[in-house]
Structures are given as structure tokens and as C-alpha cells.
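As a representative case, the lines below give one protein's residues and C-alpha cells.
***
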Amino acid sequence: MLDLGTSFLASVSRDPEAVAVVDGNTRLTYAAWYRAISAAVTGLGELGLTSGDRLVTVLQNRWEAATLHWACQFAGVVVVPLNWRTTTDELDHALSDSEASAVFYEPVSAAAVAASPAAAALPRVVVGAAARPGETAFTDIVARDAAPARALASAEALSLMLYTSGTTARPKGVPRRHRAERAAALAHVAQNLYGRGERTLGVMPLYHTMGVRSLLAMSLIGGTFVCLPRFSVSEALRLITAERVTNLYLVPTLYHDLVHHADFSVTDVSTVRKLGFAGASMTDGLLARLEEAFRPDLFVNHYGSSEVYTFTIDQDAPRKPGSAGRAGLNTMVRVVPFGALDPAATAGPGVEGEIAVIAGGDEAFEGYWRRPEADAKAFRGGWYFTGDTGYADADGDIFVTGRIDDMIITGGENVSPVEIESCLSLHPAVSEVAVVGLPDERWGKIVAAFVKRRAPVDAADLDAYCRAAGLPSHKLPRRTVFVAEIPKSPVGKLLRRRLVSGDYALEAASPFSPSSFVKALT
């Protein structure tokens, strides 16, 4: 298997004049992009970064972020992309945990970086703005002539490390090797039937496996990565038409927003022939709406994770709504009875259990970053236990029913209820709180907080409290329900499933909230 630097060189050799990346007025061919990447590689060396070092980025989907991703592949530096909405605490944890050697940021993430003690001790590079004293501007790095970059990493070297949240809300590093990343990109091309010269909308973030996969896949076929730094429906629709986008790979929430926007009916989306979605399940209604609106040649439901890119693929998602299909090209999948230690103990058709995938697949990671306790939980007998619940039907198709650890996937983002509960529980008017994900047509699931009050407080007060505490916007409860009791088992275990199913009692009429017990926040 080639390393990714050599893989990119092969792309430059095949398609030097094909447009590789578009970001506003910036349009770079593969040959021109290679020159910019080479300059960035030189700049990384001048910052003191060497092969194996970790570099943290806090960037939106802009051409500079994509350039930096490729520069790291050439230099053998491990890119560690973070959500640009990250808090200072989350940033400090990632910088410390990864033992980062530098951090790259932009104005939208500047406040978190400025307040980070860990970032203050590192070389800092600002993208899209002038550098402050002690910092470097990215424009100064790429605006230079540099020797053509050589691929310094092997296929066995680490390519990147994504951070994913676990049941305790403590982010875990997911290191992935060059060979696994390239295998995943090749599988993405094959499973989505991408042809040479495809053009994709690069809106899924490059701190998310979906965004990285789109970036790498396009390079393999001389395709174009059309950057959309921050999702805007009107801008997405404009780019689809202006750049003649041929495929979309999005979370269901973004598809929902596209087809429900007023401009959709007057936008020419005829160039889009292939649809793919991942990150969350899609409702039957949205599947039907997209099938009618796009009439795609291919409609792929892709089920996977940061750890093992592909679990299953269904290349005709509307055929069997809710089905995640069968194992992808580079893996094996089975449903194991809950609590089983032997992965060979497969659950029968229709019997719910935990979904497991073979750990030795070409796309798989090999273990979490310095988290042996997480490895011990995840790996059994050569299989990776996903933490997802589901079942296989009589045809062998996998259906995903939820998460063992109650993680909420909203708009394609993983949100731990524990972190939100911890925040709300500190409010003096909150007696008890439980957070769950409730089904939603647009978001897949929304964050819902069930609160038992001890003093007057309403949903708006709690929202303001969470914001003031630094909870990112995508983790804020979109619905707050005031209940008489939080359901628990006889031994005191929180029964989230009863909240999801509606099996709870609303708080009786009280002076706390004379008008309403449920407040939906937008």
C-alpha cells in the first residue's frame, strides 16, 4: 500500500492540470496545489516539526486546511484536527493528550486558542488573518518557492488522529495509519462508484472522518474538492450549480436543510448523480424526498466510525429504509449477543445485540491513543465492539437501533449526555437531570434535557446558563422537559430508554412554570 504522500504524487502525475481544490476565488490544479503543499512542508520543518510529531488544527473547511492535511502526509507529521467550535478546556486536553508540537487556528477559533495555557507554550500559526507577536501567518508559509516535497512517511506511519467522545465524555484519540487511510479512501471510491473527475461538495468537516474521506477520495480519481467552510444552504446550492458538483456525501441533517430550503426548487441540481449519507440514520420521509428530488443513479447509506471507517454499505438506501446494508469491502460485521465475550456467538436474525466488526480489516485502527482501558473494552477475540446496538434481518442486512453508551448523534456530531448533565446539574435550581437524544426529522436526533426542579427556573434560564458555562452550541439542549421524577431502576440506575419512549410524568402545575412545561429552543 502506498503512503499518502506518494499517493498524491501519483495524482499530480496523472492529472496535473485537473482542478483539485476550489475555495471561493482560489482554484488550484493538482500541479499548483502540489507547489503550495511543498511550501507548507518546508514551513512545517521551519517550525521544528519532524516525522511523528503531532500538529493540532482548529480550522473550518478551507483550502488552507486541506493543504495542511496533505502537507502533514508528506512530512510524516500526524495531523490532529479538532472541531473549530472547540472549547478551551477541550483544546487543552487534546494538546496535552496528543503531546502536540504546534497548533494552527483561524479567527473563528482564536478565542479558544488565546485562552489555552497549553497553546501558549506551542508554535501557533494563524490562517486567514494577520499574525500577532510570537505567531506565524499561514500566508507567509505558503507564499514562497520551495523544493518539491518528497514523501517522507511510510505506509505504516501514522497519518492522523481524530478525537471521539466516549461514555465519560473524555475524548479519545483515534490514530490511523497511512495504509488504513488510503484503503478507506479506495473503498469510498469503489462503494460510491465514483468515476474519474468527480466533483464533491467539501462541507463535511476535516475533523470528521467523512470530510477526510471525501478529500482523499477525490485525489485518487483526479476529482475536485469544493470547499464550503461553514454550512449555508443557499451557498451550498449555489456551489452545486456553479461548480457542477457530481456527488454529495453528507449527514442527514444537511440533506434535510437542502431539500426544505426555499431555493431548492429553483436550483439546478441535475449534475448530482450520486448521494451518500453517514453519521446518523435517515428517516423514511427524508429518504423518499431525496429520491424524488435528485433521482440519483446511486443512493448509499454508509455506516461506520472514526475507528473503522466502513462497517456496512447499502447502495440502494430507499429500497429498505432503516437498513444499513451489509459489510463493506474491507471488513466483516456481525451482531453479538449483549455481554458475550466470544465474538463468534452471533445473535440470530431479528435478535438485538451489539454490532462488532473484525479488527484486522484494512481500514481499521489498532487501538486508542494511550487508553488501554478503552482498548480492553473495545477489542475481544480479534473483533472491535462498536458500542452500537442493532440486529440483522432475515436477509442479512444490518439495522442499527442505538448506542449502548447512549451517545447522541445530532446533525452527524457525537454528543455525550454526561457532559451536558454535568453542566446542568450545577445549576442551583436543578435537582436532577437526564439528557437523551429524541428523534427529529432535521437533525436525526436532538439533545433533550429532562429536569427535576428544586426552585424556579425555565428553559431559557438553563440555556443561558449552559452558554455561559461554555457548552458549545451543538451540545445545547434543543428541548427542555420539566418532570416530576427522573426514572430509575430499583438500584438507582438512570433509565434513559423510558425518557425516549415517553414513559415519564410531567411536573404538576407549580409556580416554577405557570405557562408551559416544555420549551423548545432554536
Remarks:
- Confidence is low (pLDDT under 50) at residues 513-522.
- The chain has three domains: 1-14+30-177, 231-405, 408-520.
